Amino acid sequence: MIGIIMAGGKGTRMNLDSEKLLLKYKKPMILHVVDSLKNSNSFSKILAVTSCNSPKTKKLLEENNIETFDTPGIGYVEDLNLALTSIHDDVLVTSGDLPLLDKEIIQKIIGEFDPKKTWTSILVTNEFLISLGLESDYSIIFDDKKCHYTGISLINSEMISSLKNLDEDYVIIDDKRIAFNLNSKQDYDLLSAA
Q1: Are 105 and 178 in contact, with CB atoms under 8 Å apart?
Q2: Buried b / exposed e across 165-176, counting CB within 10 Å, b at 16+?
């Protein structure tokens, strides 16, 4: 299995002068994600998807011996699609802005992988997100519950020809380590206070 970290976004919703994934929570946020994947001992390779939007993040990743894959930085889906076309393996993809990730939650998520399913997105329930004081713009109704995407998916890339009209499956894991996705200044303040 290959671990992919999405690290090419602009972080425009944060309204920052610097790159979002370099924000510090003890260390740059992106390194928490890198370390959680490394420490899980679950991947044959870890690959960070970067773009022209994140040159300093790319430099930091390369200084930490993480292979990078350059994309045009058009958008999350387009960049991920480009990366997946070059991969022929099972994949765990995660956003680079999940600073509470650790090896245990990564291993738990990998335990949900089903090679018969093309794409499995990991969700948290709206109720759980609200209990943490968080919000999300990306919701879906699953299992009669309002849920939110965590930015983590399990993918059988051999079954993908395009990200259009994809059969998507879902798993709900209400855990703050995957719910805490930094998208706003308020999220960062909440994290800093935790």
Answers
A1: yes
A2: eeeeeebbbebe
Which amino acid is present at 9? Answer: G
pTM of the predicted model as reported, rounded to 2 decimal places: 0.90
What does the alpha-carbon distance between residue 152 and residue 65 come to, in Å, rounded to a whole number? 22
Q: Which of the pair, 149 or 192, is modelled with greater confidence?
A: 149
Token pair 């930015």 is found at 151
Domains of the chain in sequence order: 2-193 (3.90.550.10)
Average pLDDT, the chain: 88
What are 51's strand-pairing partners? 71
CA dist 120 → 36, 55, 92, 113, 150 (Å): 20, 30, 10, 8, 12
